[in-house]
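agent> fetching stored inputs for the NAP docking request
agent> found them:
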Amino acid sequence: MTRRVIARGYGGPEVLAVVEVAPVPPARREVAIEVRAIGVNPIDYKRYSGAFGTDPASLPLSLGAEAAGVVVEVGEDASGPDGPLSPGDEVIVYPAEGAYADRLVVAADSVVRKPPSLPWNEAAGLLVAGTTAVETVDAAKIGAGDLLLVHGAAGAVGSCVVQVACSRGATVIGTARPENHDYLRSLGATPMSYGAGLAGRVRVLAPEGVDAVIDTVGGEEAVDVSVELVRDPPRMVTTVAVPRAVEAGFLGVGGTNPASREVRRRLRSPVVDLADRGDLRVRVARTYWLSEVARAHTELARSHPAGKFVLLP
Ligand SMILES: NC(=O)c1ccc[n+]([C@@H]2O[C@H](COP(=O)([O-])OP(=O)(O)OC[C@H]3O[C@@H](n4cnc5c(N)ncnc54)[C@H](OP(=O)(O)O)[C@@H]3O)[C@@H](O)[C@H]2O)c1
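agent> prediction call returned; pasting tokens
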């Protein structure tokens, strides 16, 4: 039997359950993966929280979007973006609907090769944050000489945004709580505490405002401060397209932007290459067993150490 996590209903982490299901073989153009590590993302708990509405007909929900593991069975004509796949190949799976499992059967085109340099935990948490970050940096047209403000710069996405923007020659001011300021400095950003007076503190460093904003927080403060400080409003990009951000003119990436799906697929291999060269590092903050998924979600939704949470099957 194989194990996977489902949400039996809508609510808090108490609706989660680990269930056993019989393994199925891969069909044509599919592969079966023995999972080594699974990336945890806020979207995973938002899906069953009711934040995006509720649809009892879609229950139970299969959770998870990204994982890393070893190919164990290959269907006919199973070729991924990097070429034909064989048992024993070490891979990263994204997008991977239902990735919270110890075995996955997925379309071969959702599988890219894992470089030997990348540990399983980092590989599992690389592609949601990494591709989102590159998409936002591209959308904000960040290049050499730009002054960029990043809200939530110590988060999984925000820390990738900082690294990618700095590597393109931008100067980055990143908001985070004080405990994360040294981490932001290590990534190349100037740290800034969020909270009352944020716009004034940024103006000390940027009297003329900033060229662009990337927001991974979506709160009132992030929207207000961005609108006040950005010199070029079309260069405000958010990963959390709350109604106020949309009204304020932020460009939303991800769920609200259907073009993102293809962009993310195209960005997978370049992001893996960045990580392989050491130019993009995913910090793994905590690991949990699959059976501890409810605790992982409870802790991810609170203030937590900077970096990715990873589940181990
Ligand atoms: N649209 C998409 O395709 C897409 C893709 C990925 C993620 N997302 C969304 O993007 C958001 C971030 O995801 P993530 O994986 O990076 O989450 P994460 O790792 O939990 O990071 C969130 C960060 O927000 C910071 N934070 C909390 N309150 C803040 C505030 N008031 N001002 C500034 N920073 C604050 C925290 O930093 P401190 O510890 O320093 O407080 C935390 O590190 C989530 O809402 C997620 O659902 C969207």
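agent> quick read of the result: The first helix runs from residue 42 to 49.
agent> awaiting further instructions
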